[in-house]
Amino acid sequence: MEHDILIGMEVHVQLNTKSKLFCSCPTNATEPNTVICPTCLGHPGSKPVLNALALEWATKLALAIGCTIAPSVVFSRKTYFYPDLVKNFQITQYEEPLGSNGQITLDSKQLVRIKRLHVEEDPGALIHESGGTLIDYNRSGIPLCEIVTEPDMHSPAEVREFMKKLLSVVSYLGIFDQDTCVIKADANVSIKERNFQRVELKNITGFKEIERALHYEIQRQKQQEVKRETRGWNAEKGISYSLRDKESEEDYGYIVEPDLPVFEVSHDWVKEIQKKIPELSEQRAARWVRTWKIDQTDARIIAADLDVAVLFETIAKKAEPLLSSRWVRREVLRLLNDQRKELKETAFEAESLSELFNLLSQKKITDRIGQRLIEQLAERKFSPVKYVKEQNLGMVVDEEVLRKECHTAIAQNSKAVEDYKKGEEKSLQFLIGQVMRATKGKASPAVIRELLLKLLG
Question: Cys-Cys link to 427, which of 98, 143, 199, 416 (CB 3.0-4.6 A)?
Answer without folding.
Answer: 416
